[in-house]
Design a protein that fits this description.
This protein has 10 helices and no strands. With 213 residues, the protein is mainly α. It has 2 domains: 118 residues, no CATH class; 87 residues, no CATH class. Helix 4 packs antiparallel against helix 5, helix 5 packs antiparallel against helix 6 and helix 8 packs antiparallel against helix 9. The protein starts with a helix and ends in a 15-residue tail after the last helix. The C terminus is likely disordered.
Length: 213
Amino acid sequence: MEITIILIGVILSYLIGSMPTALWVGKAFYGVDIRAHGSGNSGATNTFRVLGKKAGSLVLIIDVLKGLTAASLVRYCYFLDPGSVRYVNIQLLFGLVSVLGHIFPIYCQFKGGKGIATLLGMIIGIHYLSALACVLLFIVVLFSTRYVSLSSMLAAIAFPLFAIVIYKNEEPLFVAFGIAAAIMVILTHQKNIARLVEGTENKAKLLKKHRQE
């Protein structure tokens, strides 16, 4: 029975993560296939770039909620003790599956976004202090460089460091997840890394004075 419940949680987590928010918002409210514009990525960053702040904010919030919702499904595993090692491990499992669903959505021929927002939602559900630290780092780097991709990668790389060094979370699977998440983010940003090296990466338009650049 326990295995069945966990399996159902895994399937639901994947389906939740697979929801192509950017694609649905673009088509429903703007008549635009987000994959045919900008970077071609169906994520929040490209939505901000192509459709603007309102659409981008909506996509970002929903994508974060996808990861948070998946991680929260562990509450239905009545046989687990909240806060126990096994409880956290199942949270990690559900959350990670939702991130994979976002990257490889069943609804869109397994071509989705990069999973940053969904990953953030998952981290909020599991270890909100580390998530807050990552968000603050993201904001600092973003306003310093205006590179969303660089901000995302540095925040992801910093996550296991925040969790281990600052918050003293030394649970092996949690540490392994943090390292794996950082590697996954880097792998999904290979094109961005190449553009950063070449100096051709797009910069976010954060302030009015930047709009004329």
